[in-house]
Amino acid sequence: MESNNLNESRLGPNRFDELDANAAGNLIRRRREQLGLSLADVVSRTTVSSPQYLHKLEHGLVHVGRSKHVASLAIALELDGEDIAALSNRTQSMSVVDVRYPTAFQVPIVLAGTYPKIGAYTLARRPNEVQVVDTTQKDLIPGRLYVIVGEKPKTEAPVDKPPAQEGAVEEKATELDAAEKQRQKEDFEKFGHCARAVEATDGSIHFVTDEGIFSSEEVRVFGRITFVAHPQ
């Protein structure tokens, strides 16, 4: 009879030897059952596309450790670092983040540099999502998601004013427009933002956010988003 103790060692003595497809599938199936989750439950919490595909992973038809879904399955099934190492043939332990207890992202965290290498965060502008962020991955790859914060420029750009002959009304309108842009900029700098990296025609990288498009010089990259959870 199998034990339901979630803290019980699940692989035996040679835990860093890569499991074959059947053993790897059996590991995630047993773990899912220990947690009382259905196939559909796991699919809703991971990047796995369907219960049918998860069934293939669990029965060794596809090696789960070599699939792109291993990271999200590790989080959903609360696998420890040694289990992940056995699944994916990685000899070092990997961090598994508990998305049930995310940290509210605050810019001072970035400025102080006091944060874990991998952590779960909620962003003020996306309160219904939990972003799992790897802060060691800051190389910019088009198409990937990142958490960014606004970078304050070293010098403020001068405000263009219209020629005097255009009149005081136009000048006042320009000042108000500049003030509004400055307010939006300062507001942007107060929060962390989910952003997708895109490559411009000149090869430079820009970030697309809910607030607009920003060049890589205008922001600071906190880390790459490796997984997005949607808690119930």
UniProtKB/TrEMBL annotation:
<feature type="domain" description="HTH cro/C1-type">
    <location>
        <begin position="28"/>
        <end position="84"/>
    </location>
</feature>
<feature type="compositionally biased region" description="Basic and acidic residues">
    <location>
        <begin position="169"/>
        <end position="182"/>
    </location>
</feature>
<dbReference type="InterPro" id="IPR001387">
    <property type="entry name" value="Cro/C1-type_HTH"/>
</dbReference>
<dbReference type="Pfam" id="PF13560">
    <property type="entry name" value="HTH_31"/>
</dbReference>
<feature type="region of interest" description="Disordered">
    <location>
        <begin position="155"/>
        <end position="182"/>
    </location>
</feature>
<dbReference type="InterPro" id="IPR010982">
    <property type="entry name" value="Lambda_DNA-bd_dom_sf"/>
</dbReference>
<protein>
    <submittedName>
        <fullName>Transcriptional regulator with XRE-family HTH domain</fullName>
    </submittedName>
</protein>
